[in-house]
Automatic annotation (TrEMBL):
Organism: Haloarchaeobius iranensis
Lineage: Archaea, Methanobacteriati, Methanobacteriota, Stenosarchaea group, Halobacteria
Protein name: L-aspartate oxidase
Family in the record: Belongs to the FAD-dependent oxidoreductase 2 family. NadB subfamily.
One Pfam family, short name: FAD_binding_2
Sorted UniProt keywords: FAD, Flavoprotein, Oxidoreductase, Pyridine nucleotide biosynthesis
Length: 497
């Protein structure tokens, strides 16, 4: 049996911030992560940057609300904006010394602009900001006396008793090992593995959302799955940062025509959901969409060397335009939390992409995900201290039946992804969402039958993915209003007799 003051599940920016916040308050912190290297976390893949308030916090607030189609929780947005600059300065600049890009002639920070932002306010390091934040963060925590990090370790189930969470079962032994914690903070990232094409790293299976939901925690806004409009359209997709369009990149269809001015007054800098649907429409109509980088003020490989290298690795001639297509990117909903990340279950917190803070509403503003993870991670970590761990009866994870066939989980995942892509993608219909729920309920039932007698990480990931996918499809079916990244096509009315 193992005990800790605070258990953090996940090592993206939100999990790291939570661990730092708790450690600063004197708590002993155990961080567990499935990741074996930094690039296994979504934060490491973040490109564009991290937003600050810029010259006017009120304008930043309005941009967030506008991008959300007016659905964001205004109180939550206020929390984000009021804490943004202090958190960035304290943790990223002063504590970690992140080497954000500066203007050559002044050595002042080189702020950039992205879609739906009204001004240049985003700090960045080339177009690979996440990597330059997360890796120093992990190194800092690894050297902290009060923090222990267990890599290649998955949380399988939450340990609960009478509506209170007491820690989690880990896969450190064949049949699971309990870690009892005063408080538990979920920071498990997104749901990219539920779709065939995603900007998330492998292993983004909605673990925290599923574990929390199965334990009885409230979830909210699960229908709001954001698709990024400009991911590389070939095999092995990667994100083409919105910063490219912020610096003047243009979208052209298969006929070479610029089309975004026909869809929105802000053209390429319209909200993500608008651009994503427009890109897909033009692909359907003309066969392709490319991102024209010849219009940038400086050469693409000088302005965005990391992205130019990715293009070169795939043999893409960026001078002829980079082929792009929408790709699953971010879940705006998740485990429902308050302004310090506390869930509806006692002693359980959730932060980062697996949490629904209310900041994003129906659509997330660019470069606010790292900021939200940082702000809510710190607040959750600080709030989670002061509770002693208590051992209760832990769930028994059985492992008595023979191993499943080697391709079992992979084949079930293929079925799940095909269902989500076909029925729960950029555009949805009531009939399709009904079909999706039927398929996903059957799949979940099949997986549950195996989980009862077998304990294996890939099986639990499949269980978590099927639970989360069903939550997304169910929420989408219950919301018949098209708003933000949830777009419902209603059937045409029957002709009158």
């Amino acid at each position: 049996m193992r005990e800790t003051d605070v258990l953090v599940v996940g090592t993206g920016i939100a999990g790291c911030a939570a661990a730092l916040g708790a450690a600063r308050e004197g708590a002993d912190v155990l961080v567990v992560t499935k990741a074996e290297k930094p690039e296994d976390a979504s934060s490491d893949w973040a490109q564009g940057g991290i937003s600050t308030t810029g010259t006017d916090p009120e304008t930043f607030t309005q941009d967030i609300l506008d991008a959300s189609a007016g659905t964001a929780d205004e109180d939550a947005v206020d929390v984000l904006v009021e804490n943004a600059d202090e958190a960035v300065a304290d943790v990223l600049v002063d504590t970690l010394g992140v080497d954000f890009d500066v203007e050559a002639d002044t050595d002042e920070f080189d702020y950039t602009r992205e879609a739906a932002h009204s001004e240049e306010r985003i700090l960045h390091v080339d177009a690979s900001t996440g990597r330059h934040i997360l890796r120093p963060f992990l190194n800092f925590l690894a050297d902290h006396d009060s923090v222990e990090i267990l890599e290649d370790t998955a949380a399988l189930e939450l340990v609960t008793h009478e509506g209170r969470v007491h820690g989690a079962m880990l896969d450190t032994e064949t049949t699971g090992e309990p870690v009892y914690a005063g408080t538990t903070i979920l920071a498990t990232g997104g749901i990219g593995d539920l779709f065939e094409r995603s900007t998330n790293p492998a292993g983004s299976t909605g673990d925290g959302i599923a574990m929390a939901a199965l334990a009885g925690a409230d979830v909210a806004d699960m229908e709001f799955v954001q698709f990024h409009p400009t991911a590389y359209a070939g095999d092995d997709p990667f994100l083409l940062s919105e910063a490219i369009r912020g610096e003047g990149g243009l979208l052209r269809n298969g006929d070479g025509e610029r089309f975004m001015p026909d869809y929105h007054a802000d053209a390429e800098l319209a909200p993500r959901d608008v651009v994503a649907r427009a890109v897909q429409d033009e692909i359907d109509a003309t066969g392709a969409v490319t991102l024209d980088v010849s219009t940038l003020e400086e050469p693409f490989d000088e302005a965005f060397p990391d992205l130019a290298a990715k293009c070169a690795e795939r043999g893409v001639d960026w001078e002829s335009g980079i082929p792009v297509a929408p790709c699953e990117h971010f879940l705006c909903g998740g485990v429902d939390v308050d302004h310090v990340g506390s869930t509806s279950l006692d002693r359980l917190y959730a932060v980062g992409e697996c949490a629904r803070t209310g900041v994003h509403g129906a659509n997330r503003l660019a470069s606010t995900s790292l900021l939200e993870g940082l702000v809510w991670g710190l607040r959750a970590g600080e709030d989670a201290v002061g509770v002693r761990p208590e051992a209760v009866e832990a769930p028994e994870l059985l492992d008595r039946d023979p191993d499943l066939p080697e391709r079992f989980a992979a084949e079930k995942f293929h079925r799940l992804r095909r269902t989500m892509d076909e029925y729960v993608g950029l555009r949805r219909t009531p009939d399709d969402l009904g079909r999706a729920q039927a398929v996903l309920r059957r799949l979940k039932g099949e997986v549950d039958a195996y989980v009862r007698t077998r304990t294996a990480r890939d099986l639990y990931e499949l269980r978590n993915a099927s639970v989360t996918a069903l939550l997304v499809a169910r929420a989408a079916a219950e919301n018949d209003e098209s708003v933000g990244c949830h777009y419902v096509e209603q059937p045409a009315a029957a002709d009158a007799d």
